[in-house]
UniProtKB/TrEMBL annotation:
Residues 38-138 form the G domain. It comes from Achromobacter arsenitoxydans SY8. This is G domain-containing protein. InterPro entries: GTP-bd, P-loop_NTPase. One of its GO terms (biological process) is tRNA wobble uridine modification. GO terms for molecular function: GTP binding.
Length: 295
């Protein structure tokens, strides 16, 4: 769908702030109408977000990565890549610098669905994670049907029983932080998937958990997808439109007040003028009467 008229109304030309807000809203609406779902990966530094997204995008290996990975913190800005109608979004770790946190937060609010990535080895959640998830719950409408728990790097724990205990602990901590049990949980290993892909070992690919997550993501553009992201987008646009309308009404009220003030001032001046004219007429009439009486 394309918006037929994107020009700023003439009535807003004298109000640059409103004109800019109007243009931003129309541009944003056009983007949201034309683009597919946005899936944002979030989590603390070294949770494996970038590696996961590279795997989902099918771009991994030396020189082929779409999202930067490394031992040091390398993701400090929001980066994205469209794959088969889905935009994958990589964000800074929620435990990074203050500027990184702000960047990550803005990226989150622009997402349709969220992959919260947490390492299996780190069964406990850090305070920064708990705070981030709490804010996410407050700020994102319908989070329960938009947030996916991804337990990453499961290859780091070889004992199945230990892995199960850690996964249960992660789910419990996650549920406590957001106030609901995750509707979808995927336990994955990007390392196993890559190794299986490079060496042609289907077994490694199958036990990596990546195919199930890729399938979930790939179904999002379909109208029958489990996540009704289009409805949430419509709600987001409605909220932005209401905010813009409120701005316009506020300006209209201000202009109306100015008109009333000016009208009152004009009316006062008119009354003063009328009084002056009346006084003049009375004065002239008095003078004429005196002249007449002198005759």
């Amino acid at each position: 769908m394309t918006i037929s008229n994107t020009s700023v109304p003439d009535s807003l030309e004298d109000h640059p702030i409103l004109a800019n807000a109007y243009s931003a809203y129309v541009s944003r609406k056009q983007v949201l109408l034309e683009s597919g779902p946005r899936v944002a990966a979030c989590g603390i530094y070294n949770a494996g977000k970038s590696s996961l997204l590279n795997t989902l995008a099918g771009q991994f290996g030396e020189g082929a990565e779409a999202f930067k990975t490394g031992a040091a913190r390398v993701t400090s800005t929001v980066s994205e890549l469209e794959v088969a109608g889905v935009t994958l979004v990589d964000m800074p770790g929620v435990d990074g610098a203050t500027d990184d946190d702000e960047t990550a937060w803005q990226g989150m609010l622009g997402g349709d669905c969220y992959l919260y990535v947490h390492r299996l080895m780190a069964a406990e959640f850090e305070q920064s994670e708990l705070e981030f998830l709490g804010l996410l719950k407050e700020q994102v409408r319908g989070l329960e049907s938009r947030l996916v728990l991804v337990i990453s790097q499961i290859d780091e724990v070889g004992d199945p029983e230990e892995a199960a205990r850690r996964e249960a602990a992660i789910r419990t901590a996650f549920t406590a932080a957001v106030g609901f049990e995750p509707r979808w949980t995927f336990a994955v290993s990007a390392a196993r998937y890559k190794k299986g892909h490079v060496e042609g070992k289907a077994g490694l690919i199958n036990i990596s958990g990546i195919p199930e997550l890729k399938n979930w993501v790939s179904q999002l553009p379909e109208t029958s997808a489990n996540v009704d992201w289009r409805t949430f987008r419509a709600d987001r646009l409605r909220t932005e439109k209401d905010a813009l309308t409120a701005q316009i009404l506020a300006i209209a009220d201000e202009l109306d007040l100015q008109i009333q003030v000016r009208t009152a001032a004009r009316q006062k001046r008119l009354q003063s003028f009328e009084a002056a004219v009346a006084a003049l007429v009375q004065n002239v009439s008095g003078s004429l009467k005196r002249i007449d009486s002198a005759e």
